[in-house]
Structures are given as structure tokens and as C-alpha cells.
């Protein structure tokens, strides 16, 4: 039996509680004329569900049949209990979320990228024990224009703020200045010519830290 963190405690993965029967809205409401389109979209969800099932059973061999080695490694690094609801696939992105527990960040579970018949990338909510790691992770996601990566450690609002402007690799350089305590958490700063960006981190070492919001100042 696999045990996963749930907000500082542990809980056994209960496969019977998973709501994976939920289908994407488009598939559930499509009429006979859309049958071909629905069938064509079935492959991503099939691989995603098989990988999730393999993880809950601790079966890496089964996981390797439906996912790349990197995706398997990411999935088996998930620190929380199994997400209990499958939200379906939006294009190649298939999402599993938690409805009964809270986990850090806006991803709220796992997103699998399935461009064909195999899962090639896994995004996951993360249990991070250092505020600075949260800030660096969010900044790295921004430099790669990868919103899912940002949501692994930050709220939807924080990600929306950071990604409001696209990162320019030819623009002014950002320098990480570290983190300092502030009311309710920590403020982690990046300085750049003309101003600074502050990642406001909340949470705890036990429950996991996450980026709650982001603010800026101008010199």
C-alpha cells in the first residue's frame, strides 16, 4: 500500500474513491455526428488514466508502457494522496484534481501532457519546504512561458500576475535577493534595473510553501 502526504499527515491511497469516470464536457454532450471526433480524442485520456492507475498501485512497469521515463519519474515523485477527480482532457492536457483535500498551488493535483498514445510530461502540485525554492520555481516557469509549471507552486492569481508580461530573454536581468519574513509568511525578492518583483510566500514546512501573490515596485 502506498502512503502519501496530506497536509502534513499521511493517508493511504484509496483507489475505490477515484472519480475517473467523469468525461470531458464535449465528449459527454456530443451527438452521433461527433462520434469520430470523440474517438480520436480518446487516446490522451486512456494513457493518462492508465498512468494514474499504475501510480496508485506502485507499478512502474505498467507506467512505463504508457509514459516516457521522465513522465514516470515525475508521477512517482508526487507527494500527496491520489487526486480523486478526473476533469478530462483539454487538447493534449489531461487533468486530475483533489476535491477532498487542499494541496499547495493552483494546479491542485496533476496535469499530464499526452500528444499521442503516451504521457510525455507530468505537472504536479509540489510539497516544497523552503520559500526560496518556491520563488525560484515560479520565476523559472515564467522564463519558459510555462503556466502549468508556475501553477505547481503558485496560486492562479499569482501566475496570472507574473505572466501578464511575457519574459524577454534580451531584457533587463533579474537578480534573486533572497527571502525575508513578513506578516503571514515570507517575501522573496528579485531586483532588476528600475524596480523589483516580490513573491509573497505562504504556508509552512509541514504543509508545504506556495506563492500566494506577486507584487512589483519601481525605483
Reading the helices and strands in chain order gives EEHHHHHEEEEHHHEEEE
How far do the termini sit from each other?
55 Å
* Structural class by secondary-structure content: alpha+beta
* Residue windows where pLDDT falls under 50 for at least 5 positions: 1-17, 21-41
Please indicate the percent range of residues in DSSP E strands (runs of 2 or more).
25-35%
**Approximate helicity band:** 25-40%
Q: In angstroms, what is the radius of gyration?
A: 19 Å
Broad shape:
globular
Report the average pLDDT across residues.
86
Tell me the major beta sheet: 4 strands, antiparallel
**What's the number of domains?**
2
Reading side by side through the largest sheet, how are the strands ordered?
A: 3-4-5-6
Number of helices: 8
Strand count: 10
Descriptive report:
- The chain is 30% helix and 30% strand.
- It has 219 residues and is α+β, with helices and mostly antiparallel strands.
- It has two domains: 3-124, no CATH class; 131-218, Nuclear Transport Factor 2, Chain: A, CATH 3.10.450.
- The strands form three sheets. A four-stranded antiparallel sheet has the order 3-4-5-6. It has a four-stranded antiparallel sheet with strand order 7-8-9-10. Strands 1-2 form a two-stranded antiparallel sheet.
- α3 packs antiparallel against α4.
- The chain is globular, with a radius of gyration of 19 Å.
- Residues 1-27 form the signal peptide.
- Keywords: Signal.
Amino acid at each position: 500500500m502506498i502512503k502519501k502526504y496530506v497536509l502534513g499527515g499521511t493517508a493511504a491511497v484509496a483507489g475505490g474513491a477515484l472519480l475517473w469516470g467523469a468525461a470531458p464536457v464535449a465528449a459527454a454532450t456530443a451527438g452521433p455526428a461527433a462520434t469520430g471526433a470523440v474517438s480520436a480524442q480518446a487516446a490522451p485520456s486512456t494513457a493518462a488514466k492508465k498512468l494514474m492507475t499504475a501510480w496508485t498501485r506502485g507499478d512502474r512497469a505498467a507506467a512505463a508502457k504508457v509514459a516516457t521515463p521522465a513522465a514516470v519519474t515525475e508521477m512517482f515523485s508526487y507527494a500527496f494522496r491520489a487526486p480523486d477527480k478526473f476533469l478530462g482532457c483539454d487538447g493534449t492536457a489531461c487533468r486530475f484534481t483533489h476535491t477532498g483535500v487542499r494541496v499547495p498551488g493552483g494546479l491542485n493535483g496533476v496535469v499530464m501532457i499526452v500528444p499521442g498514445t503516451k504521457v510525455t510530461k507530468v505537472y504536479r502540485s509540489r510539497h516544497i519546504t523552503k520559500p526560496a525554492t518556491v520563488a525560484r520555481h515560479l520565476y523559472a516557469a515564467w522564463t519558459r512561458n510555462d503556466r502549468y509549471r508556475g501553477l505547481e507552486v503558485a496560486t492562479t492569481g499569482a501566475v496570472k500576475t507574473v505572466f501578464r508580461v511575457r519574459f524577454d530573454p534580451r531584457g533587463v536581468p533579474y537578480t534573486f535577493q533572497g527571502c525575508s519574513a513578513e506578516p503571514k509568511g515570507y517575501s522573496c525578492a528579485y531586483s532588476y534595473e528600475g524596480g523589483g518583483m516580490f513573491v509573497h510566500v505562504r504556508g509552512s514546512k509541514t504543509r508545504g510553501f506556495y506563492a500566494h501573490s506577486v507584487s512589483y515596485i519601481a525605483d
